[in-house]
Design brief:
Length: 205
Amino acid sequence: RQTLDHPFLQGLVSGKLPRESFHFYLRQDSLYLKAFAQALHALAAKAPDEDWASTLAKHATEAIAAERELHRGLLAAAGGAREVEMAPTNLAYTNHLLASVTRLSFTEGLAAMLPCYWIYWEVGKELKRRGSADPDYARWIDQYSAPEYGSTVKQVLAMMNQAAASASAAERDNARRLFLISARYEYLFWDMAWRRESWPFTRKE
């Protein structure tokens, strides 16, 4: 509920979200997606099931490519994509994901990745129900409320349930902890974009 009440998401519905915050989000999300795809490939490599490995590798290419195409279209009016520095929250979140999938078990790594899938689907469905006054924001909402995206999320949820069922109690406990950390980072990602977060001591050109 706290996530849905964030002014960034409220602004997507009302159409009053500043364009600068939306474009900041898109550019940061493009950087995030590169790291997310890298994490998915790493997770696929340690999957205990060939079908799971294939599914995750497919997500890393096809699903991510679709989101990047969306970003390009939505950024066209802002001069297109450009090189930006990864914001502090984005860097911390992606480091958390990459560390989880490379250093821990498959179950723990998948738990860290799950909130990105699941929260976007839940947010997308709710924002679709509310509608948006802005066509660009409505297009973004459509991406994450689409049945095709929902099917992808359901695949990962089923995978998570099966992996957790065969994991140790210690793994499950840590998986819950990692899931919660990632869920908190999802909220912080919206907040980062809303505030257009920057690093201190940034060198002026």
